[in-house]
Amino acid sequence: MEIRFVRPTIELRDKATGFRQEFFDNGEMIINGSELLDKTENYDDWLKAVTDNMSEETVSPDWVVTDTFFVLDETDRIIGIIDLRHTLNEFLKDFGNCGYSVRPSERRKGYATKMLRHILGIAKDTGLNVLYLSVERSNEPSVKTILKNGGIYERSFEFEGEQADVYKILL
After folding, report:
1. Most exposed residue of 15, 67, 119, 170, measured as fewest CB within 10 angstroms of its CB?
2. Residue 114 vs residues 83, 128, 145: alpha-carbon distances, Å
C-alpha cells in the first residue's frame, strides 16, 4: 500500500470532484482537512484559495499558512486529503494543526495512519515541534489513528453540541 502526497493542481480537477462527490453520496457533508473543498462548488476557486494559503504573502487575512495535499494510491486515485496549518489562530486553537479525511470506500485499510505519520515529517521540516489535532469522541477510528501516531490527550471541548478532544503529538 503505497501512498504519495501531491499538491492540488488543475489537472486533478476531475479526480477531486469525484473524491468530493463520494463523501456526499455517502451522506457526509464535511470533508475534514479539505480546506473547504466540501463547501466550495467551483474547483478552480478552491484551488486558488488553497494555493494562496500556502504563502505568508497571499494567505487569506482570516486564515493561517496551510499546506494541503491530496493523497494518491498506486493507481493515482485520490484516497485522501490532509492539511497542515503552520500556526493556530484563535479559531483554530480547538481544531489543531492538521485535519484529514479518507474517502469512504478506502477506509479501514490503514491509509489514515500512514497519512498522519507522513504529515508529521512534513510538520517537523516546517519547524513545528508539536502537532495538535482534535477529534470528536464518537470518531473512534480517528482517535485510534492519532494514538497510533503518538497522540497524547491534552484537553476536551464541546463543538456544536458534540464532545471533542485535543491531542498533541511531539515531533
Report:
1. 170
2. 14, 19, 9
